[in-house]
Design brief:
Distance between the termini: 36 Å
Helix content: 40-55%
Number of helices: 5
Number of domains: 1
Shape: globular
Largest sheet: 2 strands, antiparallel
Strand content: under 5%
Number of strands: 2
Strand order of the largest sheet: 1-2
C-alpha cells in the first residue's frame, strides 16, 4: 500500500469563498489561483502552499491563544471529528480547532488552549477576529507575490 504524501492533499475545508469573488478563500486561506489550479500543481508547489499556510497560523494563533497541551488539542480534534492538517504544526491544528469549535469559548481549555485576548468573550468573536487577522495578512502576502510575479 502506497502512502500518500500529506502535502499532496488539498487544504480545502469545504467552505470556499472564492466562488463569491474573494481573492483569498476564507475557508482554507489559499489564493484563488491556488484553489483553481490545485490539481495541476506540482508537489513542490503544493508543499510551498502548505508551508505558507502553516507560517500564517504560526504568526496569527499566538496572538489570540496559547497552546498549553498539544496532546490534549489533538485528542479534542479527533473526539469532535474536526479535520486538521496533522502534518503541520500545532498552531495549524489550533486554527482548525477554533474555526470549527463546537463549544463556547469558556471551554477552550478542553482543547488544551488558553485564550490570551480578554476582549474576546464568545467563540464567534474569536473566529471573526482570527478570520480578519488572517485575511489581512494573506492579502498583504498576495500583493507581495503579485509584485514579484509569483502569481
Amino acid at each position: 500500500m502506497t502512502k500518500i504524501n500529506p502535502y499532496q492533499k488539498t487544504p480545502c475545508v469545504g467552505r470556499c469563498s472564492t466562488v463569491y469573488g474573494d481573492p483569498i478563500c476564507r475557508g482554507c486561506k489559499r489564493f484563488i489561483n491556488e484553489v483553481s489550479f490545485w490539481n495541476q500543481l506540482q508537489i513542490e508547489q503544493k508543499t510551498a502552499i502548505w508551508q505558507r499556510l502553516e507560517r500564517l497560523a504560526d504568526r496569527i494563533i499566538p496572538q489570540f491563544v496559547e497552546i498549553l497541551d498539544t496532546d490534549q488539542l489533538q485528542k479534542f480534534l479527533e473526539q469532535h471529528a474536526i479535520r486538521y492538517p496533522a502534518h503541520l504544526s500545532p498552531t495549524s491544528w489550533a486554527l482548525h480547532c477554533i474555526e470549527n469549535f463546537p463549544v463556547e469559548i469558556q471551554k477552550i481549555s478542553q482543547a488544551g488552549m488558553k485564550l490570551k485576548v480578554t476582549e474576546i468573550g464568545t467563540t464567534k468573536e474569536l473566529k471573526l477576529a482570527l478570520q480578519k487577522a488572517i485575511y489581512t495578512l494573506s492579502l498583504a502576502e498576495k500583493e507581495r507575490h503579485a509584485q514579484h510575479g509569483l502569481i
